[in-house]
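Researcher: I've got a protein sequence and the SMILES for zinc ion. Could you write out the 3D structure of the bound complex as C-alpha cells? I'd like something to compare against our soaking experiments later this week.
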Amino acid sequence: MLKRLLLVVMLCTPLAAWALLKPVRVVAPEWAGLSCVTDTLCTDDVSRTLEAAALYDEALTFVDVALGAIDNKPRVIFCGSDACSESFGLGRRAGMTIGTFGIVINTRGWKPFYVRHELIHHLQNERLGMFVAWTKPEWLVEGMAYALSEDPRQKLSEPFQQYRSEFENWYATVGKERIWSEAGKL
Ligand SMILES: [Zn+2]
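Model: Sure. Here is the predicted complex with zinc ion in place.
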C-alpha cells in the first residue's frame, strides 16, 4: 500500500512528493545539507568517507559476483547521525532503496551485509524495472536481499525469516543463471 502510494505521488506530483515524502530527498541530498564526495557517495560525516567508500566498493563487488553487474551505480547516502536518518524518514530501518534513484544507509547500517542488501534491491529495480519490482512478491524481493547479502543473523524477525527460507527454496530450483528470467514470471 505504501509502495503504491509512493509510486502515485512520485508520478503525479513531484513537488508535493518532495514536501511529503522524505525519501525523495535522495535525488538532491545537497538540499538536505549532505556532502557528496563523489557523484555516488554522500555523507553527513566526511570524517568517515573512507569507511563509507570501502563499504560501497565491497558491496558492489559482492553483488556483482552473487547476482550480476549493476549497470548504473546508485548514489548512496551514508548517514552518520540520527538527524540525517530522520531527514530521510528511515525510522528503524537500517537502509532504504528508492527505485534506481539512490540508497540511504542509517547510522546502524554501516555493515557490509546491510549495504549489500540495499544494492540487491537496486539491482532488482534495474533488472525487473522499478515499477514491476514493486509488484513482485515480498518473499522474492526481501528474501533475495536477506539471503544473497549473506546476512549473518540466523533468525530474522518475521515475516523476514519466512521470506528468506521461501526464497532459498525457490532459488535452489532456479539458480543464478535463471534468477531474473524466473523472477520476471512471478
Ligand atoms: Zn530489504
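Model: The chain has nine helices and five strands. The CA atoms of residues 80 and 182 lie 38 Å apart.
Researcher: Great, I'll pass this along to the crystallography team.
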